[in-house]
């Protein structure tokens, strides 16, 4: 089956605005399994690795500065099509284009303050999970799994 893991992060603005519980709750209620979670204060070098693909963009320094402005909540969610569905739940990168009902479409306005991050492919999910959770994480069975997955 297409059970995947995706890296989801509440950015500093999401933490400051008290949206951690709301974002967690949306993934929980959708039926995804929480497999890793921590509050983190990453270094500049760590964030530059996370956003390495964007290093030649004009907004890159501002992006790194914003990401350094406070703690983030790092998490890994597992379930059917978790990468693509996670992106749908976040909404478009620019909140002005995010549909209402998505996290960004409900809570954000500016592309440089868009509250949350989600992996854009299975390949980048694996890379990001390795970067943010080098310690690994425990596996467990979600007891309600037979009610969520066929
Ligand atoms: P996403 O976060 O939806 O995967 P991305 O990987 O293209 O989007 O960019 C990473 C982050 O960089 C994005 O969440 C916000 C910021 N960003 C992207 N495009 C931007 C732009 N044109 N101006 C300012 N910040 C931008
Ligand atoms: Mg991205």
TrEMBL record:
The Nucleoside diphosphate kinase-like domain, residue ranges: 3-139
Pfam families in the cross-refs: NDK
Keywords: ATP-binding, Kinase, Nucleotide-binding, Transferase
GO terms for biological process, alphabetical: CTP biosynthetic process; GTP biosynthetic process; UTP biosynthetic process
Annotated ATP binding sites: 11, 59, 87, 93, 104, 114
GO molecular function, one term: ATP binding
EC number: 2.7.4.6
Keyword Ribonucleoprotein: no
Family matches, as PROSITE patterns: NDPK (PS00469), NDPK_LIKE (PS51374)
Swiss-Prot/TrEMBL cofactor(s): Mg(2+)
Reaction(s) this enzyme catalyzes, per UniProt: a 2'-deoxyribonucleoside 5'-diphosphate + ATP = a 2'-deoxyribonucleoside 5'-triphosphate + ADP
Active site residues per record: 117 (pros-phosphohistidine intermediate)
Protein family according to the UniProt entry: Belongs to the NDK family.
Protein name as annotated: Nucleoside diphosphate kinase
């Amino acid at each position: 089956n297409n059970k995947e893991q995706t890296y989801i992060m509440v950015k500093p603005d999401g933490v400051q605005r008290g949206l951690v519980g709301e974002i967690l709750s949306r993934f929980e209620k959708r039926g995804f399994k929480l497999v890793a979670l921590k509050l983190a204060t990453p270094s500049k070098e760590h964030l530059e690795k996370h956003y390495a693909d964007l290093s030649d963009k004009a907004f890159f320094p501002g992006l790194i500065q914003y990401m350094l402005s406070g703690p983030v909540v790092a998490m890994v969610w597992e379930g059917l099509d978790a990468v693509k569905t996670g992106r749908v739940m976040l909404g478009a990168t620019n909140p002005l284009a995010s549909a209402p009902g998505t996290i960004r479409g409900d809570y954000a306005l500016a592309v440089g303050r868009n509250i949350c991050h989600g992996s854009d492919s299975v390949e980048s999910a694996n890379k990001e999970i390795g970067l943010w959770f080098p310690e690994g994480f425990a596996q467990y069975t979600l007891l309600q799994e037979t009610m969520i997955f066929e």
